[in-house]
Structure formats: structure tokens, C-alpha cells
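Contributing new records

If you add data, match the layout below exactly. Sequence lines come first and carry their own label; structure lines follow with theirs. Keep one chain per record. Anything else will be rejected by the validation script.
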Amino acid sequence: MAEYTSKILSIRPLTPDVKVYRVEKPAGWAFVPGQATEVAVNKPGWTAEARPFTFTSPLAAPWLEFTIKSYRGRPGVTKLLDTLVPGDELLLHDVWGELTYRGPGLFIAGGAGITPFLAIFRDLKTKNALADVRLLYGNPSEADVIEKQELTELLGPRFRSFTGTRFIGAEDIRQAVRPGDWVYLCGPDPMMAALTPVIQGLGLGERLVVEP
């Protein structure tokens, strides 16, 4: 497995527990929007603790970007990431992932599951190809909605936000889906387990794209 050392250029708080990390882009680096890499922190005792994170940077940007939620109540990589400052280093590995754009359709996300979709939407914006994209996005509260302003600007009324006890349900999906749609799904395991059979029950299983 290849390994690249990448210095953190900037860190921007986004929600109470999510930050945007902009880092150096290794020479020749390439990815498809929606893909991810394994990331470790270049500090003693942590270099072998790599975790998967999705790129959220535009393809043409001279830097790479990750939008990462930190779980401060549990020891681990995301808690350590929350303590880093510009100048600290990350270790990046090979690019992987199949949650990439196949065609127009319905995107369904929960929490940090929006990150692969951010990369896809930003890329589609440069191609003026967002007209047939719709998003259902669930979060515990309004404060947890990642890049709400940008999503609203990109998608307008085709972006629906679900917060608190208002969960994305079968009827929401039925109302949003269109004939011929691809359906993209990414979020916490309980959401994935609940919504995957709903989507398959609508006869959309062959056009369902999820992160393996």
C-alpha cells in the first residue's frame, strides 16, 4: 500500500463536532468524486491507525479536503484529529470507493454520510449538471446539518432536511424518486439497515449505489 505524508494547511470548524481539514495534495494525486482514502495521523503510536475518510475537495483544487466528524467521547482517530492544528501531518493511502456518480437521481444521506455527496455535487456544479439531482438529508438537529447553506444554494427546493425526530421514511422516498433514477445512500448503519429494504421494495435495488 502506498503512503503519502501530507501537511495540514488549514482547519475550519463547521458544526459543533465537524471540521474541514485542508491538506497538501501529493503530486499526481487523482480521485473520482465520492471516493475515499485511509487516513492516519503522523504522530508516535498512531501511524498504523488508519481510518477511511471521503474527499470533499473539488477535483481541480491544488489541495485535498476532508470533512470529518469527531467522536470526542471515545478514544480514537477522530478524537485525535480534533486536537490537530495546521502544520501537523496526515498519512494518506490508496484511493478507493464505489459510491461514485452513475447518473441523475435521488441522494439520501444521514449525518457525515453527506461527505461523498458533497464531492459529487461540487463536481456536477462545474459541469452545470445538478438539475436532476435531489437530496434527502437527516440529522439529529439543525446545528448538525453539514454545509446546509451550500446545499441550499446548490439544490434549492430539491434539498430536503430532516432533523430531530423527523426521520426520512418510505413515503418521503416515494415522493422524491423519479422513473429512471439512480438512488445513492450513505449514512449511519441503522439508517442504512432501515432504508435499504425500503428502496429495494420500490423496485430500485438494481439502481441503488451504496458505500460497500
